[in-house]
Amino acid sequence: MNIEPQGPTVKNPPEQFAGDVWLDVIAAPHEADQRMTVATVRFAPGARTAWHSHARGQYLRITQGTAGFGGREGNIIEVRTGETLYTPPGEDRFHAAPADGFMEHIAMLESADGPAATTVWLEHVTDAELGR
């Protein structure tokens, strides 16, 4: 058994996020055959990810506020506190906090065979795509 030490909160990079977004790692692989990463991610009002996809999909559990999730087809769905969104492998999407409130989620994903392929980051989401 091992008690994991609390790591530092990291501000996510502007190349991948618009607005202020912070990340706290909850769990990360220790052994070569482990793949799972879990993190708490906090979005300031109006903050959002760039378009991206995950090689093995992702689960996002909303722990505070309401999240907006958008896909390439143009639909935006709202996911509320206590709900979990699953995105299948390779599906382009974004997630965002509302303009008037914070949003927090727990992100759960598995690493791809090559670390660079785990998350594929794409272009920033426009205000029109976000519906603002």
From TrEMBL:
Pfam families: Cupin_2. Gene3D superfamilies: Jelly Rolls. SUPFAM superfamilies: RmlC-like cupins. Residues 40-98 form the Cupin type-2 domain. Coiled coil: none annotated. This is Cupin. The lineage of its organism: Bacteria, Bacillati, Actinomycetota, Actinomycetes, Micrococcales.
